[in-house]
Amino acid sequence: MQVSDTLNIQNNLNLELHHYLVATHTSTMAKDIYTHTKSPDIAPLYINTVLADLFKCSPYVVRVFPNDNLIEQYQHKAKLTKNWSGIIVSVSSSTSFEALLSHLRCRLMITFEGQRKGILHYYNPIVANYFFDGPNTTDTDNWLGPIKQVCWYGSNHSPNQSLWCKIDNSSLTESEISTWVMTPSQQASLEILYDDQILANFLTSTSQTINNREEWYQHRHYFSQAEHLGFIDIDHIYAYLSLCREHGSIDNTVFNSKKFTRFSPAEKIQYLTSILKKDSVYVS
Questions:
Q1: Regarding beta strands 180-181 and 109-112, do their DSSP bridges make them parallel or antiparallel, or are they unpaired?
Q2: pLDDT tens-digit profile of 10-32?
Q3: Tens of pLDDT along 98-139?
Q4: pTM of structure
């Protein structure tokens, strides 16, 4: 995946491809699209699917061009958390609008954990941020099928926040049009969304921020440690994250002692606080 804080989609679109905006629904989205485009290739995504009854809430798919006013609108709206957004998908010039629509509509429905069924809101940048970024390349390429490229604006409270993200389909094969079965790598990637939400709530509650991708990945590591240590209560998780922010990574030898493993979660926090405070005083 490529990320950049200076990516200008309008000037960097690959002219050998056809590009389509899949825009999320808001009360103003459809009006904005029809105001800023003259493309005849435009359609509600939910039409001719099991979600057809939700037509009024449907995302829209519309072709965009490098110098299109709609591209400028998309770039502006993508950075506003309370407005419509979406993703840009790109296909070869030989792939028709109808073929792309058929593929996108088919990919709305998924099965997971056996026979459970659900809707995949892949056009939402928050979902795209995890669904396209984390899974292994083969799973992503197979899901994309005829789609050669996906671009979105990274969501807040993630390693990609405030960055333009782009993935390319490295596969030359077309996938079958059928209900997608969520792969383990895709499901694991989507589950990270919930971890990041906990980290975001922690940062908000403590009036702190994370300023770069590396620091965000480090906090994911802290959270993973907290889970491994048996911290379930949110107060204990927050307390552990606070210790890590103050002291950095904690030596694993502390966790492996028999005494530590017998402690309750509250006792573990108290013990770690005591140990790290002593170390801090010693170093100073």
A1: parallel
A2: 556 666 889 999 999 999 999 99
A3: 999 999 999 999 998 878 899 999 999 999 999 998 888 999
A4: 0.88
